[in-house]
Design brief:
The complex is a heterodimer. Chain A is of the alpha/beta class. Chain A is built from 16 helices and 13 strands. Chain B has 14 helices and eight strands. The chains are: A alpha/beta, B alpha/beta. At the A-B interface, helix 3, helix 5, helix 9, helix 10 and strand 13 of A face strand 1, helix 1, helix 2, helix 3 and helix 4 of B.
């Protein structure tokens, strides 16, 4: 029996691509198709959910649609390009190598490979689906003829976030941001393209000028030790060791509780192809302050505050306004709800599967 | 919504204004960015030797970090799943339009610019060694400066502001400097910089504590957010008209002090003054906390020792500098010296 199968280099249960892949698998199965997830590297935590990629040839059917989750370099790309099944690419962006090169050239070289692999798939893909219009522009520039945009169904669900809100201490217990001690939050890998140092510099300015008790919680695991080590040293040299907490990778429940406790989500990335944490923040009504970079203006719309300058003074002043201006926070929460309705993430996976079905019918 | 830089009087009254008269945010922003950029491991090289060797491995085989079953199978097969000639990586590179995509027969012409494969390989080897050399040099420079057993050491023995020493030190530098920039480390709030600038001397500061340095930066003073050893390492020889060391000299181990004075001797112009303001070692318990003493093991030096070290570093005219009155509770002494003319 033919099916719609997904290929992903490695399935991490807790990251955005992993959650998206699993969500799509469920939606595909709900439409009555067989659907397996093939991986090149088997991860212990998701072993039961995946099959080794080398098992696929024995299980393949000529009418299969294979969906490649493209977020990094992998020999899967060349391997899939050489097969005959109908291929659809789901593109999650490639971090520009030049942002990684000063920190980890091995990673940068991987991104260069990924760029080459994307071009390799142009002639083979029946459809390429991006998770943002920003990413779709990359696909078009690479040469893909047929493209579409569907946002990922990867954010933490409202029920998880609501549980986090219920578990968090009430604002009165912590004094609230109005009494000083604003709680900034950063969620995502500790990677050079996230430019977390800009958030740290803005925190320094804030603590020096207006709110000596302001803190920053950084949730996410390091993508490269050189950048993470530099960030730790920077925090220490600025005298912010007591003010900045690096929690590393955290469980969904911990992340949800962090959203509930925070006063603002700060995103100073130099490059974002989508930015799932922004969606999660909007879901709980947490204001977002972000640099106007990559897909952030598109994903956030009017539901957050975009900063054009990387000047930490400008960022600090903007965050202070957002933290302390109650009417502004309420307005941003309203706009966030509207933006989430526009994104319609609840049906995203189903819309994606409809696209796959369309490809299947045309090829059939 | 968009945020623009706020006007000076635009901040809510309850949270305080961000921008004050005479403040120079551009300098502070540049200093903060420079302080982080200095932590990059690759120096000014866009690529490092690991990437170069990875590239070599891609083309010639042996280096395969993180190889999976799939990649090993594809690598092992002379013919990939498409049945085409060459390895899958060569086909990938060829299809993707990468130059110099496959090894081919030794000596064949296959790459950009009509180079033979051997020439291309050798070019990569040369590049690899160039990157290796740059990386080693960066590491050597860093190791030479790494006397800090813990990050943020400057916060463990925070430099005391010069206080009563500002006026006598400034007067000495104004009178003794043959011209050129005068550098003060750790400059703290920058009061010596203010005094020197007011006297017409171009002054610059070094302060590793970012939060402390924001003050003088916002007043328009020139301050580097780093350790003085890093700052002097980046300066060309004979480029400073004077040097004042305070604070930092109370937290460095002896071998780092010797290195620092040697470097100072190099970067100061002929006849330039140097002033050391150091804590009294016999009263170190009053100015160095127990944690700092345990972790940093600073060895406070007596004035006589500083005199010896200055002389051994090649300075002349070593003398005690009078700090004037009002020194109760200030267990510090000052020495002045100069480079030979």
């Amino acid at each position: 029996m033919s099916g719609i199968h997904q290929f992903v280099p490695v399935l991490h249960g807790g990251d955005a691509v992993g959650r998206h892949t699993l969500g799509l698998r469920d939606a595909i199965v709900a439409r009555g198709f067989e659907s397996r997830i093939y991986v090149d590297t088997v991860e212990a935590g998701t072993r039961a959910l995946t099959s080794p990629v080398l098992a696929y040839p024995a299980e393949a059917h000529a009418d299969d649609v294979v969906l490649y989750q493209f977020a990094t370099a992998s020999p899967m790309a060349a391997w899939l390009a050489a097969r005959r099944e109908t291929l659809v690419v789901n593109y999650h962006n490639i971090t520009p190598p030049e942002l990684l090169a000063p920190w980890d050239n091995h990673l940068a070289l991987g991104q260069l490979r990924a760029q080459a692999e994307l071009r390799l798939l142009v002639q083979r893909a029946a459809l390429a689906v991006a998770d943002s219009h920003y990413n779709e522009e990359h696909l078009v520039a690479a040469g893909f003829k047929e493209t579409a945009v569907v946002p990922p169904s990867a954010a933490l669900g409202p029920e998880i976030l609501a549980a986090g809100r219920a578990a968090a201490p009430p604002a009165s217990a912590t004094g609230g941001a109005a009494a000083g001690g604003a709680r900034w939050l950063s969620v995502g890998r500790i990677a050079p393209n996230k430019a977390i140092e800009d958030t740290v510099a803005a925190l320094l300015v804030t603590r020096s000028r207006r709110d000596p008790s302001a803190t920053l919680l950084v949730i996410g695991k390091p993508a490269t030790t050189s950048y993470a080590d530099a960030l730790y040293r920077y925090v220490a040299s600025l005298g912010l060791t007591d003010a900045v907490t690096f929690s590393g990778h955290a469980s969904d429940a911990t992340v949800a509780a962090a959203y509930a406790r925070a006063d603002v989500l700060v995103v100073t990335s130099a490059h974002e192809g989508y930015c799932v944490p922004v969606v999660e923040a909007m879901t709980v009504g947490l204001p977002v302050v972000a640099f106007r970079q990559g897909a952030l203006p598109e994903v956030l719309g009017e539901a957050g505050v975009l900063v054009d300058s990387t000047d930490p003074y400008t960022l600090a002043a903007t965050i202070a306004d957002v933290v302390h201006d109650a009417p502004l926070r309420a307005r941003l929460a309203e706009l966030a709800a509207q933006r989430l309705a526009e994104l319609d993430l609840a049906t995203a996976a189903d819309r994606f599967v409809s696209l796959l079905c369309g490809v299947r019918e045309r090829r059939g | 919504m968009s945020a623009q830089p706020p006007p000076p009087d635009d901040a809510p009254a309850d949270v305080g204004a961000d921008v004050g008269a005479g403040e120079d945010h551009a300098a502070a922003v540049a200093a903060l960015h420079a302080a982080f950029d200095r932590l990059r491991p690759q120096g000014s090289d866009a690529w490092n030797f690991l990437a170069a060797f990875t590239h070599l491995g891609d083309r010639y085989g042996p280096y395969q970090p993180g190889a999976s079953d799939l990649s090993r199978q594809l690598q092992a097969a002379d013919h990939g799943p498409s049945g085409g000639p060459g390895t899958w990586k060569q086909r990938l590179a060829q299809k993707a339009g990468l130059a110099g995509a496959g090894p081919g027969p030794a000596g064949s012409v296959g790459g950009a610019g009509g180079q033979t494969e051997l020439e291309q390989a050798m070019a990569q080897v040369v590049e690899a060694f160039r990157f290796l050399s740059a990386r080693v040099r960066t590491l050597e420079e860093r190791l030479a400066l790494e006397d800090r057993p813990i990050e943020g050491a400057a916060w463990l023995v925070p430099a005391t502001e010069l206080g009563r020493w500002v006026d006598p030190v400034a007067a000495h530098m104004v009178g003794a400097s043959p011209g050129g920039d005068v550098l003060h480390a750790d400059c703290g709030e920058g009061r010596l910089l203010d005094a020197l600038e007011n006297a017409g001397v171009v002054a610059c500061g070094v302060e590793p504590r970012g939060a402390v340095a924001l003050g003088p930066l916002e007043r328009g003073r020139t301050v580097e957010l780093t350790e003085v050893a890093d700052a002097l390492a980046g300066r060309p020889p004979a480029s400073l008209g004077g040097l004042v060391l305070s604070g930092v000299v109370d937290r460095l181990p002896l071998h780092a002090v010797v290195s620092l004075l040697a470097r100072a001797r190099v970067v100061l112009v002929s006849g330039a003054p140097i002033v050391i303001v150091a804590g009294d070692p016999d009263m170190s318990a009053t100015w160095a906390g127990t944690v700092a003493q345990d972790i940093l093991h600073p060895r406070p030096l007596h004035a006589e020792t500083w005199e010896l070290l200055l002389q051994r570093a090649g300075f002349v005219s070593v003398a005690s500098l009078d700090g004037g009155g009002g020194g109760e509770g200030d267990a510090r002494f000052a020495l002045s010296a100069a480079t030979p003319t």
